[in-house]
Amino acid sequence: MEVKDVVSKMTLQEKAALLSGKDFWHTEGTERLGVPEFMMCDGPNGLRKQDGEADHLGLNSSIKTVCYPTASTVASSFDVDMARRLGQTLGKECQRENVSMLLGPGLNMKRSPICGRNFEYYSEDPYLAGKIAAAYVEGIQSEGVAACPKHFAANNQEYRRMSGNSVVDERTLHEIYLTAFEIMVKDSHPKSIMCAYNQLNGTYLSDNKYMLTDVLRDKWGFDGFVVTDWGAGKDAKKGVEAGLDLVMPGPRKDHEDAIVAAVESGELEESKVDEAVTHILNALNWTLENKKNVGPSTEATRAEDYAFAKELAEGGAILLKNDNKALPLKDDRKILFVGEFAKTPRYQGSGSSHINSAFVSNAYDSAIALGKDISFAMGYDTKCKDVKDSYILREEAVEAATEADEIVVFAGLPASYESEGFDRSDINLPPEQDKLIDELSHLGKKTVVVMHNGSPVAMPWIDSVDAVLDMQLAGDAVGDATVALLWGDVNPSGKLSESYPFKLSDNPSFLNFPGDGGNPVYAEGVYIGYRYYEKKRLPVLFAFGHGLSYTEFEYSNITVDKDNATDEDTIEVSVDVWNVGRYKGKEVVQLYVSPENSKISRPYKELKGFTKVELDSGEKKTVTFKLDSRAFAYYETRIHDFYVESGDYNIMIGASTIDIRQTVKIHVESSIELPMTFDRFTPIEDILDTKKGQMVLGPVLQKIGEGMENQEDDGSMGEGGAEMMTKMFMEMPIINLASFGILTTEQVDGILSQLNN
Ligand code: BGC
């Protein structure tokens, strides 16, 4: 299709009709001009395609398919190749099922551990989320299917998700809440993006020109189309003017009519409508050109997809604790599996990402199939509300444990705890599970806990168990993957993509989540997740980036190609990683940048690189990172852009935020002088901080200093009086040179006019 030509032949009514959906999952076509409709479906951890008639609410059952691990697990793999393969696998399935666009990935920041949808999001760290999302998008689109990353942006809670107003300052917005989207847009060029329901600083995202046009298109170069979250369309005219292209779902005759009326009355320029239509048709055209017309999904493709789902679940699982090498389990031991989740695992979240799984493995059946010597006790029942019944189940489990050598408890959050549409109220497991683990772990037998959770949970029993394997929400292959990890057929290699605090009130957003009336003020600023815990020196249960292995890795020989650089250089950092243990394994090598003596408030350190490397026992490899200026930058509101402050930076490489193994210091010099206007109330030290200030004010102060040289500190201000005077002098507004009679007002104004010219 020649898009330009088609647009020129369309009537205003036809164009307006294209800007809202035909139904729940399709765009409108224009038969007269041969423009077909196209289908989009929910992801991101599987294809949720409704078969038959799509009902208006999208509630009909969807086709049976493979459910992959959810975003938390994908991010915890710290494996961009895996994320890319997930995208490709889903892209292939979309081709088989005639779906042109997949609604995903979700890459909102995990501001609070209790956001109901955290299982569907990647991380509290924008760099990790951005890189994983970019790889996923690349993967889908490499198969000729459009990706639709969501929910753009500052959509970090479910409470009042359709009306809430996220109040976020400019620096925090760009540095934390937009960076993942920015990386993803620039690296992977998504064909579409979904704007969120909520307001940002008083404007709905669907009407937000700053976000949809100034930032997304003009600053980042986005060239796809913007679609609303389902039902997020507000004012038709404002939306189109702001850069919104498609309103979903449809039909929305009101939207169509409002656009026609606005153009006819001269309130909306038709060229804006043409732009929106062009954005949609360009993407449609691309999907048409890339249609593969392969047959539908088969048993064979499903088996292949399941095998990949297992690999991904294994790669994302995190070994949180493993005292005295409690894991892997040995074949000569009698093992008791305890817990409903051993037979009916929790493996995905609820809401629009919910997949109709064709087959889900469970650890009990998987272990039996492999001939393991295991028995089972229920221990708890997530549906049971009766304390007495919970007590009986617990007692039965304790009784069964007397017959076993070792205990593996399968615990986690029930489905009703984690869902789109509402947030959790705390980070606790159901109390009967905490009690069960506590009792079993005091029987004097090795106790291992396997967790199924899409977001952090408190673990009050952590000191009395021997090992914790966190499967998060591991998708259909959860059982097979768990067994492979427990018995050591696969070596765990996941790392936490978010911090696990001891308690909810430790989290920086605690006082402002979900905000009065659902209007959160992001008062913690850039201090989200580990950025806060580190700055506050607040211990956490498990730190960002943490994850153990059955083998051990040593780090050595950190080198940088330049220790004096400018913000225009690329810096190469390398380090040797050596597998000194007995097992083959994968290590996630993490690179953090930590500014020394910054003039502004900055996190202690931030993730700026990571790579997953596989090493045989005894093998050593050199890992190399490339850092550009962004690795050292913060968002400077004076220039509305990222800026590198001149100074020293520590480059830290390690196995988690709290396990840094190698550090090297470099100096980076900025090539930009920040714009500065000076007035009577500008502190002297700020003036002297600029080159111009040093030239103009420097000599004046030197003269004043010389005049004061003979005045002795008479001690009347106590010890430290001289220091106090210097501090006070440097911090006082320049006009105070006149207030204290050191200069005249005219002389101060003269200096200011020189500075400002
Ligand atoms: C969700 C989106 C989803 C859409 C369509 C919305 O409620 O927020 O993530 O893609 O529904 O199901």
What structural keywords apply?
757 residues, alpha/beta, five-stranded mixed β-sheet
Helix content: 25-40%
Shape: globular
> How are the strands ordered across the major sheet?
10-16-15-14-11-13
If you average the pLDDT, what whole number results?
A: 96
Number of strands: 26
Percentage of residues in DSSP E strands? 15-25%
Quickly count the helices.
23
Low-confidence runs (pLDDT<50, min 5 residues)?
A: none
**What structural class is derived from the secondary structure elements?**
alpha/beta
Distance between the termini: 56 Å
Largest beta sheet, briefly? Answer: 6 strands, mixed
* Rg from alpha-carbon coordinates: 29 Å
Ions, cofactors and other bound molecules: beta-D-glucopyranose
Structural summary, described in words:
The chain is built from 23 helices and 26 strands. It is α/β, with parallel strands linked by helices and 757 residues long. It has a six-stranded mixed beta sheet, sandwiched between helices. The radius of gyration is 29 Å and the shape is globular. The model has no long low-confidence stretch (mean pLDDT 96).
Write the layout of secondary structure elements.
Elements (H helix, E strand, L loop, with lengths): L2 H7 L2 H7 L21 E3 L21 E2 L5 H6 L3 H17 L4 E3 L22 H16 L4 E2 L17 E2 L3 H8 L1 H10 L3 E4 L3 E2 L2 E2 L4 H11 L5 E4 L7 H7 L10 H12 L5 H20 L9 H18 L1 E5 L12 E4 L1 H4 L12 E2 L5 H7 L4 E4 L9 H15 L4 E7 L18 H10 L5 E7 L14 E4 L7 H9 L43 H7 L16 E8 L3 E3 L4 E9 L5 E11 L10 E10 L4 E8 L6 E3 L4 E3 L3 E10 L2 E11 L14 H5 L2 H18 L12 H11 L4 H4 L5 H12 L1
Helix pairs in contact: 2-10, 2-11, 4-5, 5-7, 12-17, 14-17, 15-16
The structure holds beta-D-glucopyranose (BGC).
Beta-D-glucopyranose (BGC) binds next to loops.
